[in-house]
Amino acid sequence: MKYSFILALCAAVALLPACRNNNSTPAVAELKQEEPGGAAAVTATQALVLPDNDAEQAPSLPISQKIIKNAVLRFSTSDFEACKKRIADTVKKYGGYIASEKQENTNMQWRNEVAIKVPAAAFEQCVESLTGGASRVDEKSITSTDVTEEYVDLDARMKARLAVEQRYVQILQQAKNVKEILEVEAQLKSIREEIESAKGRLQYMDHHVAYSNISLEYYQTFANSDPQSPGFLQRSWLSFKDGWNGLLSFALGILSAWPLIVGIVFIFIFIKKRIGRWKSRRTPTNVNQ
Question: What was the pLDDT predicted at 10?
Fold first, then answer.
């Protein structure tokens, strides 16, 4: 029985390279070759290998074409705030969302960078709507990446690994001691990590196929003046605040320098007293003369 279990474990290990190559038939054929204890080997293989006829008869479901769409847009606008609102309304209209946004304002230019996710079915319409109100379009780039082949290949690999996982589970049920259990669990852990990695990659591609990416940058340039330049009253108030803040800073500076000020006062008093004593000593001498 132990010998049969070991042969069964070897059979499952032999299936792994076959799964990675998307072809399990050679591995199954190798398992059925004559080996010492051939009867036991065939019995273990039959317990592990799923019927080939069922696999051949099961029709594979067609996978729709997987295309990831991306757009890069850059344009200028004459009304920054109105453009910002129009973009938000457009994205909402087509069922998308803003993934990230970065706005920078300077004296001469306001600029905003926006990363947009929009359903693939509305991608072209959304792009046209976003650039429709632009004063001047500086850049408009659209790319499409077909990932169908990669998706189908990865999906097939994951299904093959799932089949191997089930075989390892069957082997685990046949384990008779701790050593055999640990060996099978180690193989199960490895194969399940590969399955999770494949699932994560498939989910990533599904999301990027379902939602197209739009990298948008728009800006407004001001010729000579700062659009946020304050008026006379506001500048007067700012000047008053600056003067008051300057006075407070001066007072705080004096307070922070009080040890130095006290030292200077003591030195001044000391010198003044010394001079007064010196004068008082010289005055009687001058009178006697």
Answer: 54
Residues 205-214: tens digit of each pLDDT: 999 999 999 9
Q: Which residues pair with 215 in a beta bridge?
A: 72, 115
Specify the DSSP class assigned to residue 77: -
Q: Residue 139 corresponds to which amino acid?
A: E
Percentage of the chain beyond pLDDT 70 is 71
Q: What is the pLDDT of residues 1-52, one digit of tens each?
A: 445 555 555 555 555 554 444 443 333 333 334 333 333 333 333 334 443 4
Q: At what angle do helices 178-210 and 148-174 cross, to 10 degrees?
A: 160
Domain boundaries, given as residue ranges, for the chain: 1-59, 66-175+187-229, 236-288
Closest CA to 80 of 133, 140, 127: 133
The CA distances from residue 267 to 97, 255, 261, 275, in Å, are: 72, 19, 10, 12
Can you spell out the DSSP letters for 181-208? HHHHHHHHHHHHHHHHHHHHHHHHHHHH
CA proximity to 95, closest of 56, 123, 76, 133: 123
Averaged over 70-96, what is the pLDDT?
94
Torsion over CA of 246, 247, 251 and 254, rounded to 10 degrees?
60
Tokens representing 230? 């304050």
